[in-house]
Amino acid sequence: MTWREYHEATRHSVESLRRTPHVLDWANMPHPFRHYEGVPVLDLPADPPAPESPASDGATFLSQLLFYSAAISASKVVPSTGFRYALRVNPSSGNLHPTEFHFVTRGLKDWPDGLYHYRPSSHMAEQRALGEFDITGSDAPIVFILTSIAWREEWKYRDRAYRYCLHDVGHAWQALALAAEALGVDSKAIVDFPDDDIAQAIRLHADEWPMLLLEIRGTEGRPDARETVWYGGQANALSMEITPYPRIDAIHAATKRIVNSVVEPAPTGSGEIKLPPVVQSTRSFGQVARARRSALDFVGGPQTISLPQLSALLANAAPLLSFIQLYLYVHRVDGLEPGIYRFWPQHAELQLVRTGDQRVAAAGLSLGQDLAGNACVAFSMIGDLDRAARAYGDRGYRYVHFEAGAIGHRLYLAAEALGLGATGIGAFYDEEVHRYLHVTPEQGQVVYHFAIGYPVADPRRHA
Ligand SMILES: Cc1cc2nc3c(=O)[nH]c(=O)nc-3n(C[C@H](O)[C@H](O)[C@H](O)COP(=O)(O)O)c2cc1C
User: Fold this and answer.
1) How far apart are CA 216 and CA 133, in angstroms?
2) Rounded Cα distance, 445 and 459, in Å
3) C-beta atoms surrounding 99 within 10 Å
4) Tell me, what's the pLDDT at 463?
5) Residue 157, φ and ψ in degrees, nearest 5
6) What is the per-residue burial (b if ≥16 Cβ within 10 Å, else e) of 302-336?
7) Which atom of ligand 1 sits closest to the CA of residue 87?
8) β strands within 209-277, DSSP E
9) Distance (Å) from CA 92 to ligand 1 centroid
């Protein structure tokens, strides 16, 4: 299976949705938390200080890093059943959270070198091994290994689930990278690693796949120099039964091969609208990261956002744009005629593609989800999948989706910082989006949708 075969086979169309209706098997819903049973569990101090005051001891520093990137930050209650479920700092399609956070540490103060798995349900670290782990061939004091448990997403989204796993990793990567930045340390993502070697080195359960490594630097200390001691731990079963999805196993296998050729430059262009200077938010990173939520829907009108606010949203996404092109469905932005625009990041310009009210089109293209029409602005992220594949082979398919998720994450936080709400949208009619936006196959394909506006109150929200 090639990336193209997988992508084409998992497009949504009116016909594909009618042909293959799906009933969720609630009794078999995957457990939202992975635990490695039978290992020592180390406390990460609860309610750590804000990231602006980075701690010098390892436990509090790790607590800060995770509290502002991956911890539980709220809960919701289903009114009809009273069932309560957790929400986290990082978003996830269907709140199913396929991404697990593992990390190795080296030379942190008062924290044993070893291999850990983050347990978000209690904000603790499961100690899977003691000793030194060389994951990236560097001396980074912390290296995260972000993994995907595809089954969590497959249970609901079936063959399309691999796309969402990749988006999810992109969100988690940015959640960690931005928390690191707020703590005053650097991070570097590594995506071209030998998957099977890493999986073996940290003894992952077969249902977990390593997807992205993130080195964190700036807290270097002296390693413990101790012998490796393995606790390992027994990974909990997530469901009673697991339905195989051979198409996902096949695309995952295809994307394991590492190719590194020259990356052709991204297209450049210009637009007639020069974006104004951005508005600044006064909220701190810690407040914003912990308050971020997905809007269920947006207030349809008449409140607008300003052009400097839109400018701030786009400026946050711009540094990551490499394989992704942003198309905007502008519904209610002061000083901008409703219509479709393309964003050119090089000079912060918008190019008008078509004028007219886009609310029905944006909602319709997002599988009829009203929120894309009720937002102030919605987005189609067009991924240059061919260019990525020319540079990185099938593995490039992962990278484009990581980038989309990461951009989505920056948009979430930028919106929250401005007092707005946002929602990532993985469901759209692929081919209809291409037709509507006049995107040619050479230019790319839609990989993610997004919406930003004034959120409606959420009756399920608890904390
Ligand atoms: C990749 C991705 C795709 C998503 N797709 C949709 C969608 O199509 N419709 C929707 O209403 N929410 C969508 N969401 C939002 C999730 O439902 C939301 O993140 C999840 O319920 C957790 O809530 P939280 O973001 O408030 O933590 C998506 C989120 C992600 C990360």
Assistant:
1) 15
2) 36
3) 28
4) 60
5) -105, 0
6) eebbbbbbbbbbbbbbbebbbbbbbbbbbbbbeeb
7) 27
8) 209-217, 229-230, 234-235, 273-274
9) 5
**Nearest protein Cα to ligand 1, atom 21:** 95
Distance from residue 294's CA to the centre of ligand 1 (Å): 6
Cα dihedral across residues 343, 344, 349, 355: positive or negative: negative
**What is the model's pTM?**
0.98
Ligand 1, atom 5, lies closest to the CA of 425
Residue 293: CB partners within 8 Å, gap ≥ 6?
74, 87, 416, 421, 455, 458, 461
Atom of ligand 1 nearest to the CA of 164: 1
Q: Ligand 1: does its nearest atom lie under 6 Å from the Cβ of 91?
A: yes
Element holding 317 (H helix, E strand): helix 307-317
How far, in Å, CA of 179 to CA of 189, rounded?
14
152, 94 Cβ separation under 8 angstroms: no
Rounded to whole angstroms, how far apart are CA atoms 247 and 158?
A: 10
pLDDT tens track for 416-440: 999 999 999 999 999 999 999 999 9
Strand-strand pairing, 84-88 and 339-344: unpaired
